[in-house]
Amino acid sequence: MSRSLVAMREATLTDVEQLAELWQPFLRRGAADEPLNDIATAIERVCDSPGERLVIAEYDGGFAGAVFLKATAYSPVNSELVLQVHNLAVVSDYRRHGIGKALLECAVTWAEELGIGHVATAAASGSREANRFMARLALGPQAVLRVAPTCAVRAKLSSRQAAGRQVTQVLAARRSLRSSRSVAGR
Asked: What's 96's domain CATH number?
């Protein structure tokens, strides 16, 4: 009889530093204590929310990975529930030990318990390994999530608006020239 070396448990405040190290690419930049406070706040919130879970994977007793699960509406205009799988990550020393699959198994089991028919997740567009992993588990692309700093979007909107005014002015000048030519040609 073989015993699984992977075990799942709910996150506690003692996991904050390990989660901060694991989730470093997902965390906001700022003072050193801000990401730790964000994670601690998330753990406390999850304890009070029946629609959220923060699951820790341990491999032979060691911290091996984590995932944040959230049951929520599919979209603002579609109230069907979907289980969102956020920040699925595995400690590099434990990759290829079945940790990611076990974390997704935990997510699917919880979705089934809640009667949720769909599971959704995101992977970095440049992460070939993560995207292949998700594809092997039947998670196909549904949409493209695009993100940019607000100031960059504002700058692009402003430049397009200014360019639009210039085009409008050029067209008006051309119309004016045409009408003056047609009047002179009579």
From this structure: 3.40.630.30
Which residue, chain included where needed, has tokens 């930049």?
A: 29
Q: How far is Cα 83 from Cα 115, in angstroms, rounded to an integer? A: 10
Range of the domain at 55: 6-136
Q: Strands 119-121 and 78-90, how do they pair?
A: parallel
Residues 49 and 127 in one domain: yes
The rounded distance, in Å, linking the Cα atoms of 27 and 9 is 22
What does the alpha-carbon distance between residue 186 and residue 155 come to, in Å, rounded to a whole number?
47
Residue 57 confidence (pLDDT) above 90: yes
Domain total of the chain = 2
What's the mean per-residue pLDDT of the chain?
Answer: 87
Percent of the chain with pLDDT over 90: 55
Place of tokens 């448990």: 9
The encoded tokens of residue 52 equal: 């959220």
Q: Give the pLDDT of residue 183.
A: 65
